[in-house]
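== Folding the chain ==

***
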Amino acid sequence: MKKYIVLIVVLLAVSAGFAFQRKDVLLGGYAELISREHKTKNQIVTDLGLYPQVGVFLDEAICLDLIFGHTGPLIRIMNVGAGARLFHKNIYAGASFSVLAGTAVSYYEVTPKLGYLIPIVPNAYLDLQAFYRRALSSNKLEEDYAAVRLGIQVHLGKKPQADSDQ
């Protein structure tokens, strides 16, 4: 129990210094190892998914995202999507909508998510995210699962200005 209390205190202390401003940019993305059943081959296949994204803050708490993606080499799928995240310090909740097209598939997906940005160096963060993906095509369910992924986000915001006492 003491470990959990210490962990919560540390996470709250780390998040105290976060501040995003209007027009700040978060650039980053995720890499994902995806194992799924291939419907036409009737076997389990494993692919690598790469999901770069760029987010722009409308104010201190709301970030609009543009998301791209590529999954391959076995099941080649490209996607483009948009989403939004609502931040409270370094914790966020959000959702995205993407359109996917690939080898013999075309569908769309909705992905609600919760995340936590962990600082690693100034203006760079590990992005720990829990998400739920629901993908549909012509009223047919293609994918439906929840998972956790880790990504990188770089804050391209304004640099802190040095104080001048003169």
Remarks:
- The beta strands are 25-38, 43-57, 62-72, 77-88, 91-102, 105-121, 124-137, 140-155.
